[in-house]
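Quick one:
INPUT:
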């Protein structure tokens, strides 16, 4: 648990040193698989994609300028969460923890998924691993136990339930205390943040070459609505509570912000910042819905929803 000697911050220079230049972090358990390796694969693959284009081949999906910018923004926000002093101060202030919570679960995923990075990352895999990657892709795509497991794990309904569960479960006070006081539980919490966010938004934004599990924009909008209101409800409970939920944030030496004020600011962070990514994703799907309507396209209902057919009523005398 951090020990805050707030009396040492007596000048602007002291503030800068204490809050901006100190306590930078490097948690390889999270940053290596979710930031460092994906970034290396992506930029290596981008180099391959541009080289192929210069040789006359079509530009790979996700190698356009807009997609590259989106990927860089997503990774920048992820890096802010896990490399900067934000991580340290999230163990002092609940609202800083909430900032990481919102960034990783809700703000980062639309940028990463929307950048369509999967083909570019595949190009970035070293040539000596191509055979293993192709074999794995074949096993997953064919019928069999592993393919069944993958279909289950990528089920849209499961992704929505998992997202809501992760959003709520870690705010159970004993679990929050355990996470703040144990670095490995904190890593587990951050792992669930990342996987829940990416796992939901891959169903809300088209991301080739993977097939659409939810092709109907209207159903996507319903999922967005459920996710948004779940976040709003948690923010309301935190902000309107008569007392602080988490004793672990109440007894930090030198912390001048009261636990209740800290919790109310955290509720405001969740209420305000969770809305924008969902709104932008909803706007994307509304545009998709309108374009499909203009084109006369019809999307079959998603396989995880039961299709209800109305009986066809034939007027008397219309049959030959």
């Amino acid at each position: 648990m951090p020990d805050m000697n707030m009396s040492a911050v007596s000048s602007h220079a002291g503030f800068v040193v204490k809050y901006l230049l100190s306590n930078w972090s490097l948690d390889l358990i999270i940053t290596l698989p979710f930031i460092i390796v994906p970034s290396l694969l992506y930029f290596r693959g981008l180099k391959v994609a541009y080289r192929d284009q210069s040789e006359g081949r079509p530009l790979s999906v996700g190698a356009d300028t807009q997609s590259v910018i989106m990927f860089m923004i997503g990774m920048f926000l992820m890096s802010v969460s896990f490399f900067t002093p934000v991580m340290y101060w999230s163990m002092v202030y609940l609202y800083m923890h909430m900032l990481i919570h919102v960034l990783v679960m809700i703000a980062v995923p639309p940028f990463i998924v929307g950048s369509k990075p999967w083909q570019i990352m595949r190009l970035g895999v070293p040539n000596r691993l191509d055979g293993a990657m192709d074999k794995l892709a074949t096993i997953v795509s064919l019928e069999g136990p592993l393919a069944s497991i993958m279909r289950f794990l990528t089920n849209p309904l499961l992704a929505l339930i998992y997202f809501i569960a992760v959003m709520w479960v870690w705010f159970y006070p004993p679990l929050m205390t355990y996470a703040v006081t144990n670095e490995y539980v904190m890593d587990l919490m951050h792992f669930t943040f990342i996987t829940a966010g990416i796992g939901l938004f891959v169903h809300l934004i088209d991301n080739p070459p993977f097939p659409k599990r939810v092709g109907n924009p209207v159903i996507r909008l319903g999922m967005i609505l459920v996710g948004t209101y779940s976040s709003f409800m948690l923010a309301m409970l935190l902000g309107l509570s008569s007392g602080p939920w988490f004793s672990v944030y109440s007894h930090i030496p030198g912390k001048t912000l009261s636990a209740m004020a800290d919790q109310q600011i955290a509720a405001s962070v969740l209420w305000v910042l969770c809305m924008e990514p969902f709104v932008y994703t909803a706007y994307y799907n509304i545009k998709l819905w309108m374009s499909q309507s203009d084109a006369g396209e019809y999307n079959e209902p998603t396989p995880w929803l039961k299709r209800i057919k109305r009986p066809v009523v034939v007027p008397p005398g219309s049959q030959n």
